[in-house]
Amino acid sequence: MLTTNEILISAKNAAKDVFSLTTERKNKALEYMAEELINQTDKILSANALDVIAAENSVSSVMIDRLTLTKERIEGMAKGIKEVALLEDPVGKLLSTTVRDDGLVIEKVSVAIGVIAIIYESRPNVTSDAAALTLKSGNVCVLRSGKEAFRSAEAIVSALKTGLSKAGENTNFINLIEDTSRESANELMRANDYVDLLIPRGGVGLINACVQNATVPCIQTGTGICHIYVDKDADFDMALNIIENAKMSRPSVCNAAEVCLVNREIANEFLPLLKERLTADDRKVKAELLLDTEAEKIISGTPISDNGFDTEFLDYKLAIGIVADVDEAISHIAAHSTHHSEAIITNNSEVAAKFTTSVDSAAVYVNASTRFTDGGEFGLGCEMGISTQKLHARGPMGLSELTTYKYIIRGNGQTR
Questions:
Q1: Residues in CB range of 51: below 8 A, 6 or more apart
Q2: Where are the alpha helices (DSSP H) in 175-303?
Q3: DSSP run (H or E) holding 320
Q4: Can you tell me the distance from the alpha carbon of 142 to that of 145, in angstroms, rounded to the nearest whole number?
Q5: Model pTM?
Q6: What's the mean pLDDT in 382-411?
Q7: DSSP secondary structure letter of residue 337
Q8: What's residue 306's pLDDT?
């Protein structure tokens, strides 16, 4: 087994090679990587089955869903890689040109960041997404999977490395940390000589650990306490459809809704309809409704705990609160949001405009589900994660967010 330090040294050395790749070579490598995912589907599924069996007694059913791979999901991973190959190369773009009075020509040009480390938990598809995006953006990736998904990640990386080899490229463009202990994560957080950017993808514990302990540059991603506000001028059928999709379609992901705020003027009429939609007898899976004191007077459910509005459930649970108007909804979101994705359901354009202007989150929706906050849905191919911070990257992180820039200055003998 290679040590984390040995893998980091290999990654740093490989960065010199990846910087010089042409667009054509990167795209060729991506095509081979996608093909090998398909070719090695059985091997990947076998490894994933072992991960799932090991996790079944220790995590919830929705987290098992995050961990589980299928033939269709692997095909989706391969499709995502091919879509990245079709995207414009973000490296080497001339961002601006300034000609000074003394004749100096100053060009601002996009360049790769270098070695990007990604620490993630139980989503094996992150492995291929991260590898594809870092390669296309001219970077080397160092992947550190959680132990619950390590067998799956190892099989996926093996397939991707085979693709790189068939394309004639350095297989160290993609690296997987073999040590899944907490110490390997800590080592990545402190690897200033080797890691240029650290991206954690996981729960609040992982993200906070990276933000608090990392000495390398770090981007916060993923934690999603996403809100939907149902205004008094909302279309009820639309609101019910959107909330059902945002909460029930895949509750284990960060763009799933966790909180529904309802305008007081429509609460008596709307909440019984919402309860019926999410808890009907014929539903295969029912939601648990966590109610504030005012909502409890209208429908039955579970009284919300003191931290209920500050919890990312990642489960079939929905916190429900009653608010007076859009201003109170905006204030509630400001107090409890993780600045990921929020939505308003309304037919009032002035209220919608106030909401989109005042809500300070990476993605703000009008009459649409928060589940669209995704790199693929935003036309980025796949994504590195959803940034919930403001500096450098915000929202779904695609290719351009994995680049920086440098200045190239051309002169003819000028001195200062």
A1: 67, 124, 148, 149, 150, 151, 152
A2: 182-189, 204-213, 236-248, 264-279, 293-296
A3: strand 317-323
A4: 10
A5: 0.86
A6: 89
A7: -
A8: 94
